[in-house]
Structure formats: C-alpha cells, structure tokens
Design a protein that fits this description.
Distance between the termini: 66 Å
Structural class: mainly alpha
Radius of gyration: 31 Å
Low-confidence stretches: 144-182
C-alpha cells in the first residue's frame, strides 16, 4: 500500500510539474535550463545522471539499427500528425472563407452538408423553379432581393434529387434572413 501511495504521489508531482512547464514563459524555461545546467556538474546526483547519459550516447553506434528505426518511426508519426492537423486547418479555412453574406448555398436533397452535396450542370436550370427565386433582367433566375444572408442549418433550398424531375425538392436545410431580420 505504501508503494502504491508513493507511486501515485510521483505521478501527481509529474502531472503538476508538466502543467507548470507548459504554462512557463520563455524566461522561466531559460531559468529551468540554467538550473539543470548547474545541477549536472555541481551535485553528485547530477554527475551520476551525466555519466549515465554519456554511457547511453557512447553505446549508440553499437545499436545504430534499432536506434535509427525508433527515430524514423517517431519522426513518421509526428509527420503524419502534423500533416493531418494541417489538412484539417486548411479545410476549415477553405470552408470559412468561401462565400459571403450575399451567397446562397444550395444543397442537394438529403445531403447534410456542403461537402456531401453534388448538383450536376443539368440540375442548375431547375434551381430557378424553387420558391424564393426571381427572374433577372437578363432572363436568368436569382434569389429574392430581400434576402440578406443565409443562416447556417436553417433554410436553404435543395436541388431536385433526380435529373429527370421537374419539381424542386421540398426539403430545406437553411433559412434566408431578410433585411428586417425575419
């Protein structure tokens, strides 16, 4: 029981130390580095740690293959993690920067998000038959002029789910907000 409590205390001290280390400013990190640099040559336990480190480093050429596999494996994992995080951030930035408050997002019937919706070129003329669209001076169709912005996941008209269908889908995935805020 004493050993369990001692181990739990060590884990708690390590967790607290890690939390402090993460929140330290650069001056604090520099102070810790100087303290360790002084501790290594000036104390007996520091000299023992330094000797053990020297032995480990000096035996590195004897275990070159195993060491390089470990280094390459860790580098690969870190590289994949960084690549995934970068792709996620890039995708999020792309979705955040596309469109503006005057752009309507039209989703295909049954799709849950922009990324899941596919509208073919044949279906584009059918969008003008949706409610809330008006004729333009040049004979095209556009969203009603009172529409100021589209609220996310409220009322956006969806395209027909079949290329042969002439009627627009009754499903709505977003809401058009007018000048008065309705």
């Amino acid at each position: 029981m004493k050993k369990f409590i001692a181990n739990a205390l060590v884990v708690l001290v390590l967790a607290i130390g890690l939390g402090i280390w993460i929140t330290l400013p650069w001056v604090g990190v520099l102070a810790v580095a100087v303290a360790i640099a002084l501790w290594l040559p000036l104390t007996r336990s520091g000299r023992l740690a330094l000797a053990a480190t020297r032995i480990g480093i000096s035996s590195l050429p004897q275990r070159w293959g195993a060491s390089s596999v470990i280094v390459v494996g860790i580098a690969g994992v870190v590289g994949v993690l960084v690549a995934m995080l970068a792709m996620g951030e890039g995708f999020q930035a792309t979705l955040n920067s596309t469109g503006d408050d005057t752009t309507a997002i039209v989703l295909r019937g049954g799709s849950q998000a922009e990324t899941n919706s596919v509208i073919t070129r044949d279906q584009v003329p059918l969008l003008g038959t949706l409610p809330g669209w008006r004729a333009t001076r040049r004979g095209g169709r556009c969203c009603r002029p009172s529409c100021r912005r589209w609220s996310a996941w409220s009322r956006v008209p969806t395209a027909p789910t079949s290329t042969h269908s002439s009627a627009a889908s009754a499903t709505w995935a977003g809401r058009c907000t007018t000048k008065s805020g309705s």
